[in-house]
Design a protein that fits this description.
This protein is an alpha/beta fold. The chain is 29% helix and 25% strand. The protein is built from twelve helices and 17 strands. The strands form three sheets. An eight-stranded mixed β-sheet has the order 1-16-17-15-14-11-12-13, with helices on both faces. Strand 5 (124-131) and strand 6 (138-144) form a beta hairpin. It is globular, with a radius of gyration of 22 Å. It starts with 8 loop residues before the first helix and ends with a helix.
């Protein structure tokens, strides 16, 4: 395994553990999960990577100029909008970094000016590269402040001639003064406007704004683990909540009776419907709705489910969502969490709904960063919660405040 040498680590600060040995970083994450979750259940050994470098299939660089007028691109320094100029990153896809370096070197010759956040002057704000790990297909997204892009045909021609894995180039228009990277409007400059990847044997379409896990190798481990723990059979009714572009639901549909997916993001639901058709999954449906509202509507219909798979955002789930679980009555719940702190809070509430936490399985999705994913299995039970698990008196108040926002 290569030595961790990152000349940007002190400035960028994104990879908190980049100067540690990889096994040492895994130990830290394991201890963190145990400290938060061991009162509920056994925390199994974290699943690490054999090669924990250059795993990011989604690479985003902000573009600007330094004080001397030189073009720079890279990551924002933590808690700021100061760009750390980066040429090569130990966790980013190497091919993507090459593309960004090339763009940085030629945009001046194409008379493309970088955007200045302070003045609002300029055109190119960001470059986003998405790489399909299995198929090798690459998408380039040019985020600009205006749809008027000078020499765009010649620029795109030069780009795809240099990098033959590029299958599509998209101009994303973001003319708002915002910290959001992508705007709402996409203009295809080359190709179909999307790429395709294969994950767990299923084919998925990825568009500029699609949510798709950034570490393909670990995602297969994560999803296979989640499906395995769900124990789905051909007669089971499965709910896939916070379903994104349908990855987990489509993978689960192969062994299920029916799968019902809910996702709030409209673009993600459109992708999910297409992905289901790509994989000939006919026993799956997608609803564009808030997950909590969807669960309430199912409960009002006296809907019954056998399995619930949930993959909420970092903020975790909601009281509204969890309150409906006992009504829908799934025997097994698989909670995929990207934030052990909010997972701990939600597990405390789950056990008040007669669910027992069976085991927690950490997966290192983001090597050298502080983040860790956890797959947790819960089962419906009549057992009383373990006395050592203290249910905070203010937990109800916490959810009430959160749901009112």
């Amino acid at each position: 395994m290569k030595e961790n040498i990152c000349k940007y680590s002190k400035k960028c600060d994104a990879c908190k553990y980049i100067e540690k040995k990889y096994n040492d970083s895994l130990f830290i994450k394991q201890k963190r999960c145990e400290e938060l979750l061991s009162d509920f259940c056994k925390v199994e050994r974290i699943a690490g990577m054999k090669e924990p470098y250059h795993y990011r299939n989604k690479v985003h660089h902000a573009f600007s100029r330094d004080k001397k007028g030189n073009i720079i691109s890279g990551q924002y320094k933590e808690s700021s909008h100061t760009i750390v100029d980066i040429d090569r990153c130990l966790i980013e896809d190497e091919y993507a970094d090459e593309i960004i370096s090339y763009i940085k070197s030629v945009i001046k010759s194409f008379k493309i000016k970088t955007y200045d956040e302070k003045t609002g002057y300029g055109l190119l704000r960001h470059v986003l590269i998405r790489t399909a790990h299995s198929t090798g297909q690459v998408m380039v997204v040019l985020v600009a402040a205006s749809p008027v892009f000078p020499s765009k045909n010649n620029f795109v021609k030069a780009l795809v001639s240099k990098f033959d894995r590029i299958k599509t180039v998209v101009l994303n228009v973001n003319d708002r003064y915002t910290s959001m990277v992508l705007g709402d409007r996409n203009i295809n400059l080359y190709g179909k406007g999307y790429i395709e990847d294969v994950l767990c044997g299923k084919r998925f379409r990825i568009s500029p704004s699609s949510f798709y896990q950034i570490n393909s190798v670990q995602t297969e481990k994560l999803y296979n683990l989640a499906i395995e723990q769900a124990g789905i059979n051909k007669s089971d009714v499965v709910i896939d909540a916070y379903s994104g572009i349908g990855t987990i639901g489509i993978i689960a549909s192969e062994n299920a009776g029916t799968v019902h997916c809910v996702e709030l993001n409209k673009a993600a639901v459109r992708d999910a419907i297409i992905n289901a058709k790509l994989n000939h999954a006919e026993n799956i449906e997608f609803v564009c709705k808030d997950a909590g509202d969807y669960m309430v509507s199912l409960a009002q219909k006296h809907f019954k489910a056998d399995v619930l798979i949930m993959d909420p955002p970092r903020s975790g789930s909601t009281k509204k969502f969890i309150d409906q679980i006992s009504i829908l009555g799934p025997e097994r719940v698989v909670y995929v969490s990207c934030n052990p702190e909010t997972l701990k809070r939600d597990l405390k509430y789950f056990i008040t709904k007669k669910y027992q936490v069976i085991k927690a399985m950490p997966v290192d999705m983001f090597p050298f960063t502080e983040d860790v994913e956890v797959v947790t299995l819960l089962q419906l039970s009549n057992r009383k919660p373990d006395a050592k698990i203290r249910i905070d008196i203010n937990l109800e108040d916490y959810y009430r405040i959160k749901d009112s926002k």
